[in-house]
């Protein structure tokens, strides 16, 4: 893999890497740095300083004492994380506002129950079976859409129920399933923070998406 990777690098840059990095050790070392650079470039923050990155890498590799103490580092990481979250929220402001408006209007319906977390649900079919616990594994049928009605996933359409641990899915599902007796079918209206949040999921579910699921609890497997 490495020779091919460096061949690609030389094509991209127009530079014959082996003229400077003329041993396999140097080439592999350069490759590690190049891959780290690509990772940093894929999700940078404003003000990222590559020279400081190099200094931190050199100090850590050389087992030197860090030049910035852990408390200061923690505060800096937290501040940068908050800035990046704020920037992403601003970028997807439309989706956030659209989801909030949908939930506010939906909550006015008499058949909707709103939980303290903000999850909204309506009972389509009332089951009478046992309720799963957080550590249970369940079998369900489900149908998931965006609030505009676009379907992103459906076990009904596949013709195959899904099995999964209750605590291994999105927060909105984990909360709802523990309230659902077996045999129930509920429609969940899930705020983005109880779904896939700022990251979204794949190409179908964008960041900060409010989601709607029809969930039918067929059985508690374990």
TrEMBL record:
GO terms of biological process kind: protein folding
Keyword Isomerase in record: yes
Keyword field: Isomerase, Rotamase
Reactions catalysed: [protein]-peptidylproline (omega=180) = [protein]-peptidylproline (omega=0)
Xref: Pfam families: FKBP_C (PF00254), FKBP_N (PF01346)
InterPro entries for this protein: PPIase_dom_sf, PPIase_FKBP_dom, PPIase_FKBP_N, PPIase_FKBP_N_sf
Residue ranges of every copy of the PPIase FKBP-type domain listed in the record: 135-221
Keyword Isomerase belongs to the record: yes
Superkingdom as given in the UniProt entry: Bacteria
EC number(s) on file: 5.2.1.8
GO terms, molecular function: peptidyl-prolyl cis-trans isomerase activity
Family recorded in the similarity comment: Belongs to the FKBP-type PPIase family.
Protein name per the record: Peptidyl-prolyl cis-trans isomerase
Organism (species): Aliiglaciecola lipolytica E3
């Amino acid at each position: 893999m490495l020779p091919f990777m460096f061949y690609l690098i030389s094509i991209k840059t127009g530079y014959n890497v082996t003229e400077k990095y003329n041993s396999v050790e140097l080439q592999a070392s350069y490759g590690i740095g190049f891959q780290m650079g690509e990772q940093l470039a894929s999700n940078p923050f404003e003000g990222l300083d590559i020279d400081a990155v190099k200094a931190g890498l050199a100090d850590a590799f050389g087992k030197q004492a860090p030049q910035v103490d852990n408390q200061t580092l923690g505060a800096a990481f937290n501040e940068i994380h908050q800035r990046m979250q704020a920037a992403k929220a601003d970028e997807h402001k439309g989706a956030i506002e659209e989801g909030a408006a949908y939930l506010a209007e939906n909550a006015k319906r008499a058949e909707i129950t709103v939980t303290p977390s903000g999850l909204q649900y309506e009972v389509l079919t009332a089951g009478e079976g046992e309720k799963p616990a957080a550590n249970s594994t369940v079998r369900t049928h489900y149908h998931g859409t965006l609030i505009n009605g676009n379907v992103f996933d459906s076990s009904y359409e596949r013709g195959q129920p899904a099995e999964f641990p209750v605590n291994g899915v999105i927060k909105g599902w984990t909360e709802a399933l523990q309230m659902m007796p077996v045999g129930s079918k509920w429609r969940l209206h899930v705020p983005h923070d109880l779904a896939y949040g700022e990251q979204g999921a794949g190409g179908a579910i964008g960041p900060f998406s409010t989601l709607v699921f029809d969930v039918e609890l067929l059985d508690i497997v374990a």
